[in-house]
User: Which sequence fits this backbone?
């Protein structure tokens, strides 16, 4: 089996609010989640609403590069 042709890939989701607040140093860290997506069904970047422990609310977490 070839590993490069798998449909499911691992992606990292990062909080968009924490990234913006990191410039102002308001947030103590950046929230990140690891999940999987199907490369064939979702070719674009993934965005999900997840809970951010640094913002203390549900925010948009977007896919980042590895």
Assistant:
């Amino acid at each position: 089996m070839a590993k490069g042709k798998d449909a499911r890939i691992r992606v990292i989701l990062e909080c968009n609010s924490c990234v913006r607040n990191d410039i102002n140093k308001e947030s103590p860290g950046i929230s990140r989640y690891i999940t999987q997506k199907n490369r064939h069904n979702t070719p674009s970047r993934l965005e999900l609403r997840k809970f951010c422990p640094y913002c203390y609310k549900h925010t948009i977490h977007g896919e980042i590069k590895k």
About this structure: The chain has one domain: 6-62. DSSP finds one helix and four strands in the chain. Helices lie at 16-21. The two ends are 23 Å apart (CA to CA).
